[in-house]
Specification:
The complex is a heterodimer of chains A (about 130) and B (about 150). Chain A is built from one helix and eight strands. Chain A has about 130 residues and is mainly beta. Helix content of chain B is about 5%, strand content about 35%. Classes of the chains: A mainly beta (about 130), B mainly beta (about 150).
């Protein structure tokens, strides 16, 4: 239900306010020690331009590219064709969204998404009879 | 100068805008530049120019000052380097489960043709946040010269 209303609200926004084009940053996702790790390439993004948000179980990462360009620069070849990065993920309920950690280094975003206590794998003790 | 940009071959990528370059490819003869790379290669490169210089922006996430090798010879700018996507992955015997691996890992080489008249001696580069800005000034005498219009 929330998805539907959010989508409708965006359709009524005038064209100039609609979000500009964004690039999808490539990510690596792996699991280790009861946590999920997400690593995303977002070159040109600084801490001020980075936004990592969790809304319910939707994780979104957004970054503004900040590069100083001189006046009167004409583009002759561009592989990066947008000013921002954006990507979203749906998280499963086992993730402790309040404990997500983020770190940005050389344009690479590192996220650590720990699993909730009770969802961690637990070894079962075998007691002697 | 950069007139023949079609020489930079862009293969079909996974981005949302793959359709247009794919159509371009169908309706033109394909003879890609021998040094070109498919779209979406690492690192991403943007090139622009002003009246007095050519500027190359290299978006290489994860790389710092010493990780990229930049050289110019015979009007070709060559970028060389190595990017370890997940440092520390090869340590330990236990292989951790990997759900997704999209980021580039390994060595790369990119070559870009430069226009004539770059003053290599005055070239400079700087980097921040995984972006390398290469400033290639044009030789003084080759800058465009504005012509003033005198009253008759």
């Amino acid at each position: 239900m929330n998805e539907v209303t959010r989508h409708e609200a965006q359709a009524n926004v005038p064209a100039r306010e609609r979000r500009s084009r964004a690039m999808r940053p490539p990510v690596d996702i792996y699991e280790e020690n009861d946590a999920l790790f997400v690593v995303a390439d977002m070159p040109g993004v600084t801490r001020e331009g980075l936004n990592v948000e969790v809304d319910g179980n939707l994780l979104s990462i957004e970054g503004e590219i900040r590069i100083d360009m001189p006046e009167g620069l004409t583009a002759t070849y561009a592989e990066a064709q947008a000013q921002r990065y954006e990507r979203r993920f749906t998280l499963s309920h086992e993730i402790d969204t309040a404990a997500i950690e983020a770190r940005l280094e050389n344009g690479v975003l590192h996220l650590r998404l720990p699993r909730k206590e009770r969802h961690r794998s637990r070894r079962i003790e075998i007691k002697a009879a | 100068m950069f007139g023949d940009l079609k020489r930079f071959d862009n293969g079909i990528g996974s981005g949302f805008d793959w359709f247009r370059p794919w159509l371009d490819e169908i309706f033109q003869e394909g003879a890609a530049d021998i040094r070109s790379v498919p779209r979406g290669s690492f690192p991403m490169i943007n090139v622009g120019r002003t009246d007095d210089a050519v500027r190359v922006y290299v978006l290489a996430a994860g790389l710092a000052q010493d990780d990229l090798d930049i050289s110019v010879q015979d009007n070709v700018l060559t970028l060389r380097g190595r990017r370890d996507a997940l440092p520390g992955e090869h340590e330990g015997d236990r292989k951790r489960p990997c759900f997704r691996r999209e980021r580039f890992d390994g060595e790369f080489v990119r070559a870009i043709s430069l226009p004539e008249g770059i003053d290599v001696e005055r070239a400079e580069a700087r980097c921040h946040d995984g972006v390398f800005e290469i400033h290639l000034p044009k030789r003084e005498e080759l800058k465009p010269r504005r012509i003033d219009i005198q009253a008759a």
